[in-house]
Amino acid sequence: MPGGPRQSAAAPSAMHALTANPAATRAPLPARCMAFRPPARGPYAAAMEPTPPSTSPGAPLLRARGLCLTLPAAAGPVNILRGVDLDLAAGETVGLVGPSGSGKTSLLMLLAGLERPTSGSLDFAGRDLTGLDEDALARWRRDHVGIVFQSFHLIQGMTAAENVAVPLELAGRRDAAAVAARLLEAVGLGHRLRHLPTQLSGGEQQRVALARALAARPALLLADEPTGNLDQETGEVVMALLFRLCAEAGAAVLLITHDPALTAHCARVVRLADGRLGAP
Length: 280
Prior knowledge:
Layout: H1 14-20, H2 43-46, E1 62-71, E2 78-88, E3 93-97, H3 104-111, E4 119-124, E5 127-128, H4 134-144, E6 145-148, H5 160-170, H6 176-186, H7 202-215, E7 220-224, H8 232-249, E8 252-256, H9 260-263, E9 268-273, E10 276-278
Parallel strand pairs: 3-8, 3-9, 6-7, 7-8
Antiparallel strand pairs: 1-2, 1-4, 4-5, 9-10
Helix pairs in contact: 5-6, 5-7, 6-7, 7-8
C-alpha cells in the first residue's frame, strides 16, 4: 500500500495477498458457532486494511457524557435517556442489555449520530460530534461507523454485491465492485453476488448486511439485535462472523442483544433501565 510499511517477500501484506489471490478469502464458514473467540488476523481484514482514528494513549475511542433524550408527546415530554455516560475503547466489545422500551435503540441512534441528544456530549477520537451539522455527521458515519440492523435494511432493488458496494462508492472507491465481491467471498457468499435480497435467506441477508457494515473499514460497529430475526443456528453463524471479523479489523463493537450467550463473549456488559446505564 502506498505510504505503508515495507513487507518482505516472505511475508506479503494482507492487502497484497487478497489483491493477488482473491480466492484466499474463500474460507468455509463454521457449521455451528462452537466458539466466538476470534483467531489471529485473517483474510477478511485484508479487504479493509483499517486506518484507526488517532486517539490519545488511554483515551476512549467513543465517549458519551450526560446524554439525554427527551421527546415531545401529547401528554407531556417523554424522557427516553436520562444522563447516559459511556466509554468505548478501540477494539472493545460491549454488550448492551435491558428490557424492551428501555431506550437501547435510542442510545444506539445517538451514538451513530442519527439522532441528536437533547443535552450531553459525544466525542469520537477526541472530536466533538454534538456540534456537527447533518452533512458532517454523514461524512463521519461514512468514514468511521458501521451499523447492523435486526431487519437487515438491504436495498431491495440491488444485488448482494451492489448493496455491499454502496458505502465504498460513496467513499469514492474505484474498486468498489471488486472489493465488495471479495468481502462477500469472505462471508461465504461468493456464489450469491448477483442475487437480490428476496432471493436470499435471512441468514444470507444478514451476512450481506455485515459485509456492507464493515466494507468501509469502520473503527466502530453498532449492532442492534442482529440475530433477532434469525433462527438459533443461523444466528450463531452470523455472530461468529461478526465477532471474528471485527476482531481481525480491530473495530470496537457495541452490541444490543437479549441473548446471554452473546453477551458472554463481550469484554464488558452494561444494562440500560429507565434511561440510565448501570451494571448488568
